Amino acid sequence: MKLVVSAADYAMTESITDGCIRAIRDGILMDVGLMTNNLKYAARAAEEVKKYPHVSVGMDINLVSGVPCTDPKLIPTLVDENGIFVKSVVRSRIAKETGRVQQMDYNEVYLETENQVKRFIELMGYKPVYMNGHSYSEETAMSAVTAVCRKYDIPWMFEQKVGIVRPSPTWYAPPAGQENFTKESFDSADYQRSIDVADFILKDKGNILKNEYTLLRMHVGYTDADLYQMSTFHDVRPMEMSALCDPRIKRWVEDNQIKLINYAQFFAERPFQWD
Length: 275
Hints:
This protein has 12 helices and 6 strands. The protein is of the alpha/beta class. It starts with a strand and ends in a 6-residue tail after the last helix. 41% of the residues are buried.
């Protein structure tokens, strides 16, 4: 079987960038989803990953965390009074309290998405291998993102079934017997530190080995203050990074005759089709 190991949110913070690079250098990470909205972080992240040509680079469209590419005055439905993206937790709360699920303007999302794609091309020298979403979605926004992907012929991972299986359940699943496990429970640093990602993989709890192609979409990184401000996935990231660098995982790959491939290789074998 063939395994794609991919890390989301690359360049969202310095800590995530550094954790991903370690998992590439010392582990089995083969792909990263680059966020380009924050140029301060994205420029460095792009230069770092170029040192590892065996790694493919897609793009994680980010509409809910940090600063936008676009002048905030042009995208008022996406940002707050400080010109920062409205966080996903805020949008989810608004949707729950008011029933207003569609909060983003189509044209504004299209503009910001295209600007993020253009910045990716400027930084990397080629278009993203794929586009993935991040944290929060709504129909209007995803329609705009998909339109940009079609314009640039970038595979859109949330809309299309591309013939790769992501394990279900994942290591994020609530502990057995904890019926009252909530989002707040998951957000706990103590809980996230208790997640044993290596054990999940080594015991094949997600039936990784039963598929022709399997995807492990990870959230890899160290932690820092910026990360705690931007994401509820915080202390789990070092656990995932550690698993990817674990010698037992490398032996597991060899013992099970798993071929590690990146997303560029996957699409070479399974060409993406829009229709």
